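User: quick one - fold this with adenosine-5'-triphosphate bound?
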Amino acid sequence: MSNIDTDRLIGAQIAGVTLLALHGRGHTGMVFVGFQKSLKRKIAVKLVPKEKATAQSFMDEAEVIAALNHPNIVTVLDVGEYEEFLYITMQLIEGDSLQATLKRKLLHPIPSQRCLDAAFTLPVMAATLDALEYGHTQSVIHQDVKPGNILIEKQSGRAYLVDFGIARTELTEDESKYVHGTPLYMPPEQARGHVTDARADIFAVGVTIWECLAGTLPAPQLPAIKLVGMKARAPETFFTKSPSQSSPRIDQRLEQIILKATACDREQRYAGCAQFKNELSAYADEKLGIRI
Ligand SMILES: Nc1ncnc2c1ncn2[C@@H]1O[C@H](COP(=O)(O)OP(=O)(O)OP(=O)(O)O)[C@@H](O)[C@H]1O
Ligand SMILES: [Mg+2]
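Assistant: Sure. Structure tokens for the protein plus adenosine-5'-triphosphate:
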């Protein structure tokens, strides 16, 4: 990804949209701010090199995502091919991702402040669970829930889930199989390349809550391919500390919630996102005095 010359793409015209500036880049693609001439508005344009996804699967998935209509899901506008890329245009969320918000907090001079508050994190994750619950009722599993894919609109504070079901592949250790998702957040069954269901997203939400409240996850610093192998083979030892050991902000009750969501055996997790959200709401109500 890093060797793609993004400067040459500035000014490119893609289906009536002019690319204005690079907004950010991830493992699979690059997101640009673009200007849509017809409606005179700024939108987000994600470009993914064609070797990362087949055009057919990308288009098929985009079609499914475009049918999703939820206040906490970024609206997909268009999809297509441009030179050596597949592109997807979406509603631009002006604000920061949860990842960027957390990264800023990691620079705090006081170590105990290098994480996000529960009063900030839990409402964002409750909205994420609403979005996922809706997606699941439409038979769409996100498969890549993580702080980089949760955006918080600056003006309204509303959380939006992005990259729903978008093909993203990671080679497994035996190099014969690809899996979707990001190693730290994916459940063992996804690392093994098995068919995933709603409970894969529940696992990833649990890991995301854990990371936000602890600042960093107690996981080994290894290349993605090794992490996928560890998740698949030894999921019980993947995280080296328990949630409460990794942060004093995680009390016994919150630890139980995180551990249930991130159980290695998916049968032991919450059965659905609504149930998970109810647990978070009850916690937020009783312990923090906030309604989510
Ligand atoms: N519709 C959008 N509006 C505003 N920002 C967005 C939008 N979509 C993505 N972003 C931001 O652009 C950046 C790059 O996104 P991208 O999806 O390429 O990377 P990522 O989510 O970090 O990793 P991955 O490649 O695994 O998805 C991220 O910071 C993301 O939060
Ligand atoms: Mg993303």
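One thing worth noting: Residues 95-288 form a domain with the Transferase(Phosphotransferase); domain 1 fold (CATH 1.10.510.10).
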